[in-house]
Design brief:
Helices cover 41% and strands 15% of the residues. By secondary structure, the protein is α+β, with helices and mostly antiparallel strands. A hairpin with a 5-residue loop joins β1 and β2 (60-65).
Length: 88
Amino acid sequence: MDRGYLTEDEIKIILKKEDGFERLENVRDLFIFSCFTGLAYIDVANLTQDNIRKSFDGNLWIITKRQKDQHGRKCSPAGYSQNDIEEV
């Protein structure tokens, strides 16, 4: 089954969307972070600072287990700075 994907333009539209409700903006930020990392929304929502680790080359990595099946997962938060990660 092909789920399709969001285009870069669609992601930009979502990023610019401001509803005026902090709760909805937090959901938007979690969704976009999920798009960039490939993590499921629930796994992003469950992340803690302990899941963010710096590798030997100085890059940040997310180390976590999927809630769905508890399989280990490593991913790079591509396109996100340390401040962005702390904010999400």
